[in-house]
Write a structure and sequence with these properties.
It is a single chain. The protein has about 325 residues and is mostly helical. The chain has one domain: ABC transporter involved in vitamin B12 uptake, BtuC. The protein is about 80% helix and about 0% strand. The chain has helices spanning about 1-40, 45-70, 80-95, 100-125, 125-145, 155-160, 170-190, 190-200, 200-205, 210-240, 250-260, 270-290, 295-320, and strands at about 150, 165, 170, 240. The strands form 2 sheets. Strands 1-4 form a two-stranded antiparallel sheet. Strands 2-3 form a two-stranded antiparallel ribbon. α3 packs across α10, α4 (about 100-125) packs antiparallel against α10 (about 210-240) and α6 crosses α10. The longest helix has about 40 residues, at about 1-40.
């Protein structure tokens, strides 16, 4: 009887932690939605939902790449700087046409991704160190290319930033499409299975004959390319290139979305649906605090608290 009394609470606690990790992000989104519906003025309007969706799109795109990196037990701290580099390249090459400028911007993100992946996969540098170096270097290069804010006046970029199909903004459609593509890659392709195997145990993946180095490089190339796309989307939405501030603390938002969405920092798993919900949660949290006249610093504090809670839940579950 005594043993049962001690075992039952322990099992209940384990089950609660499992539910928190699996479904906590969706519950958080639901709670914030209910709170905003009840207490936030003008929340239930088409224009508000459109604004929220457009603002979350770049965060989600970056978070998708971050999810792949974290799935390999890595991380990419350079994503914010890649966004800054992307906006600088768009501004510099816009004279050749918007598509050329976008392709060059994405190519810049790919170059950063190759550098990150090569340092991690072939030189043996820890992901946090390698991407930290590129974070500093990337922002520096962006500021050398474009030292100050510059307006982006181009019909193509304006259409990307404000256009819509059946009322759904292009930015939202692009982010949703990339989310579906990432989910397909993770769940249905050999590459996706290799990513999860490497995150689960890199030595075992090598012994199994998997191309660990090549897969890691591709993962960080995807992360850099997605961050560059996010920079293009943000530039189109703002109609301006500002490498001094664009992407600042984006790595924090992306990591928060991924971890809160249930992807463990220990790797071996990627939850794309959870990442989408995590990005929405961060956007709703930010909006809620701002609309209730709390300073922006509270958003960062709230994000930090959410990360700690998610990591704690994952850690406790891992022990069992």
């Amino acid at each position: 009887m005594t043993e049962l009394a001690f075992t039952r609470p322990s099992l209940d606690r384990a089950r609660l932690l499992r539910l928190l990790q699996e479904y906590g992000v969706y519950a958080g989104v639901l709670v914030l939605l209910l709170f905003d519906v009840a207490f936030t003025p003008h929340f239930l309007s088409v224009e508000n939902f459109r604004t929220q969706a457009v603002q979350v799109a770049p965060v989600l795109v970056v978070a998708l790449g971050m999810a792949l990196a974290i799935g390999t037990e890595g991380v990419d701290l350079s994503v914010g700087s890649v966004m800054a580099l992307s906006t600088s390249l768009v501004s510099l090459y816009l004279g050749y046409g918007p598509w050329i400028a976008v392709l060059i911007a994405v190519a810049g993100g790919i170059v950063v991704g190759v550098a990150n992946g090569a340092l991690i996969a072939f030189v043996g540098v820890q992901p946090i160190v390698a991407t930290l170096a590129l974070m500093v270097a990337g922002r520096g290069v962006a500021l050398v290319l474009l030292p100050q804010l510059k307006d982006v006046r181009d019909p193509g970029m304006a259409a990307l930033g404000s256009g819509a199909v059946l009322g759904v903004p292009y930015l939202v459609l692009i982010a949703a499409g990339l989310a579906l593509l990432t989910a397909f890659v993770v769940r249905r392709t050999t590459f996706g299975r290799q990513v999860l195997a490497i995150g689960d145990s890199r030595p075992a993946a090598r012994l199994a004959g998997l191309p660990v180095g090549r897969v890691l490089v591709v993962v960080y190339v995807c992360c850099g390319a997605l961050a560059a796309v996010a920079g293009v989307l943000a530039t189109a939405r703002l109609s301006a290139s500002d490498p001094t501030s664009l992407g600042t603390l984006m790595e924090l938002s992306a990591i928060t979305a991924v971890v809160v969405g249930g992807t463990p920092l220990s790797g071996g798993r990627v939850r794309v649906g959870g990442t989408v919900a995590g990005a929405v949660l961060i956007q709703l949290l930010t909006t809620t605090l701002i609309k209730h006249d709390l300073p922006p610093s509270w958003t960062q504090i709230a994000q930090a608290a959410v990360i700690v809670l998610a990591v704690y839940a994952a850690r406790e579950r891992g022990r069992r």
